Structure prediction request, 827 residues.
Amino acid sequence: MSRNHNQTVNKIAKTGARTIGGLILLVLKIIGTFVLIGVTTLLIFACIFAIYAKSNLIKDLDVSLNDFKMSLSSIIYYEDPDTGSYKELVTLEGSEYRLWVDYADIPEYMEQALVAIEDKRFYNHHGVDWYRTVAAFGNMFLKMKDNFGGSTITQQLIKNLTEEDEVTVQRKLQEIFRALEFEKEYEKDQIVEWYLNVVTFGGNCYGIGAAANYYFGKDVSDLSLAECASILAITNNPSLYNPYINEEGNKNRQEDILGEMYYTQRYIDQETYERAVNEKLNFVRGTDEKKPTVVYTYFEDAIIEDVIADLMELKDCSYKVAEQLLYTNGYRIYSTLDPTIQSYVDSIYTNLEEIPVVTGSDQQIQSAIVIADPETGHIVALSGGVGEKTLSRSLNRATQSTRPPGSSIKPLSVYGPALEYGLITPDMRFEDSADVTLSGTDWMPKNDDWSYSGVINIRTAVIRSKNTIAAQVVDLLTPERSYAFMTEVLGFDYLSPYDADYAPMALGQLTYGITVRDMVSGYTMFVNNGVEQHTITYTKLLDNDFELIYENTPMQTVAISDVTAYWMTNLLQDAVKYGTGRGANINDIMSCAGKTGTTTDKKDRWFAGYTPYYVAVVWTGYDTPATMTAPGGNPAAALWKKVMTLVHQDLPYAEFSKPEDTYLKPIPGVDPEVGYTVRGVTVDGEVLYETSDTAIKGKNITAQAAPLEAYELVGAAEKTITITDEPANNVIEFFYTLLEVEPSVDPSADPSADPSTDPSADPSTDPSADPSTDPSADPSTDPSADPSTDPSTDPSEEPSADPSTEPSTEPSEEPSPSPSPSPPPTI
Prediction:
């Protein structure tokens, strides 16, 4: 019994042991699975993070220490239009005070003070102090504070070079990865040299060389320990620790630095520490601060800003760093300036007597203009203000100021896209009335003149700048689609999201406004068959050895079709001929088109216009916006006319280009077909044949002359017209003359051929030979004998001058009467 009992117990024990072992094994398997999943997840996360870091965090900082140690002036060139060779325009001089100091000339105390206060483990880490970094992230996540801290000297240098200081995790991670990469390339002494020469020390001076002279009137090598610590105290907060502003604050910060050097880092002994703390600081401004001697023109200012912006992108550096590179690296910059056109602009803009008189404020009326070649995008001339320019890199109203454009934006935001998307045609009619309502809003604007015209077409609305019609077209288009065209197609991506609304898109009341330069870019698409050319001020950037660094090719965008561009130009030509843009009309010397713009309370006046050669936009207003009263009409249009008259005075007259087919897709119920006629007539007006058909308005119709027996064609055998909404004008005529028939009878067999037997051979018996009996022989009674009454002698009456054979471009509601058709020429 006992044996059986023991066997049973043993069996149960073994079974239990196996069960427990199985459970333990199962648990271990589960734990192992979780560990494996965790490790796999971490590896996947690590791979994803590595890819993310490589793509987004590890960015090349394409600047080197040698770039900063150079001291070569950059030069801007322009092309001489007479010779085609490039000539020097200006040599650039920086406005910041910089004196580069090599590492060998930096006092040891300066480096020790820097390390003691900014980065105690500088010599032991590889760009990142992980102790401070972990503490900084813990401080952010655990205490919910957004001040990272923990930056090493290397990280601070990168921050100074890039000016990227957003308080975000991504920015901090990017800084960490850059610092690690940076220290693979540069030694510690190089980083110290770079840092102390790049950091700002207030007073518009950069680097310790300028700071030593600015605060103590000394070279860096002559600074004492106390003076080194005082200068380094400024870097933490130049506005707070600048001794010329807050001497007590600077002294307190200086003593903190000296304390770190003695108590913590042991760079100095007690005697040296006490001597430095007790040393009286004698702040003396240096006398050799460099001052710019050249006043740059507005065009040169614009080039400088463009090159700095491109260097920031090319080098992935900050504005300040790019600016320093520009002034010290001896770049060669090839501008798009046309000196002749710029001289025309300057002759108007620098002479205040040429500026239109306006009233409304005690301020000087201001203006800006930009002129560009629409085919290349090259800005050939500009001015950012009126009167004499006295400061370099002052406010450039042509490229930097953003002002609301008023109705001058309508071709870009309203009529252009609406034509392009097939929502309107020039002859489509809308009601100009105070009672009209919109489908998407309760808002409805008034017209500038507070008058209404009833039912009018788009052409008349553009000519008279009707706000009510622009609002209705935006209602069809939708503000969102109009905004998308402006931002995504034309590239005005700086517009506010609040601009996706009726008033901004229909009336140009933009939140932040728009620059004159950007308006020029937008209008290039109308001259350039629908292709928008973004404007540039220079074409190439070369280094000091004339090696190409960057080729500045303007960005092109196919914004609209050539047909839309043609019809918009057709409408804007009428706006200049008959509408609000009459003050800019230069049609006597060059074809022109354009649109005026007036903002609320007449605080801004614009004219955006173009010719087959150039696009030019003018803004006028006060620097502090105020209502303008202009007795002479729109001052922007007047200035545009003055400048563009000079620009085009010696250019051959040209018409705007026209596509082979100007067909606009019909809008159901809006654009019915219109009849047209093709006929052949004799020079005497006899109709020989005639056919009729119909076509859509805007369609180009080409016809061939029919061959007729016994008739000879006079003039072209092929003619083309553009169908208008007036059938009477939709006529193609071909002119014919009757062929002369040669006699077939032998005169020798005809007795009548004998002059002796032919009474008509005797003048005395032939009444037709007597001038007194034949009125047609009297020149005084024969209209054909008078050149003044013979249409064939008037060059203006050639067949090509017959309006029935030429495309009609006149508005359907033309205020002036149309000329009567010319009689056919007499052959």
The radius of gyration is 41 Å. The chain has 23 helices and 22 strands. The CA atoms of residues 79 and 86 lie 4 Å apart. The first strand starts at residue 75 and ends at 79.
